[in-house]
Amino acid sequence: MFPGLYKVNHGNVRHTLWESLFFAVMAYNNAGFTPDGAGLHVNNWAVGLPILASAFCGTLGFPVLLNLMRSWRMRRPPKRWSLHTKLTLTTTFCIVIASFTWFLLMEWNNKLLFAGNGIEPRLWHAMVAAVMPRSSGFDLSWMPGVSDATKVFLSIVMFIGGGSTSTAGGIRVTTFAVILLICRAAFTGHRDVTVFRRRIPRRIQMTAVSVTTACFALVMVGAMMLMFTTGCAFVDAVFEACSAFSLGGYSVGVASAGNPASLFILSAEMIVGRLGPLTIAYSIS
Questions:
Q1: Dihedral angle at the C-alpha atoms of 215, 220, 225, 227, nearest 10 degrees?
Q2: pLDDT band, very low/low/confident/very high, at 10 (cuts 50, 70, 90)
Q3: pTM of the full predicted structure?
């Protein structure tokens, strides 16, 4: 009776299904790009929460998800989870909570982001800042409006990245956790590095220190080269370099199509971030 109306609705359903599939794959794989600049559909909880959950699961890594599934199927308590799973989950939740708290404290009165808005948009943006910048990307519209202090903090979060063997970038949360454990052992005068009543082998300690040092040098060199080629501020250069290394997809407008050198620098860092620090370390050794 209304063929035109049926065609429009049919097209909308097809478009919605395609976008749903696209966002599901991009979220879990932490690809960090969308067809538009506001891919998370800001302030839409029904769309945003599943994307956040999928991106969070993608940063954990396949061994962690497999261990959790097997433990749930065999009804194993958390104390019987693998050391890798415990370390990944503990460090990830600490980073997410710290990011959520930092964003609320530092950006609550940011007029560029929340001019006349209520509490709900602030909470939503804090959740996005806690999960997405680590390696997922998606919503790019709010990033240029944050303060320099938040840019520095998010740069650290992006540099850490996601879990080992996950689709995320960065040095990985387990590497960061081992570095903190080494510092704790040094400050407390212990010769062995232990966590959850397990000792971390010396080889893993050396690998974590080497990977962190090499990647930190890579990001700093990339940031200085961006400053030289674009004339941007140091904070923006570090943010852009960490975003490229973590495959997060965020940008504060440092690189541009009119400056091929800046694009080449970021592309090189993205290649290293995609291959993974451990892959490069093992291939060299």
A1: 150
A2: low
A3: 0.84
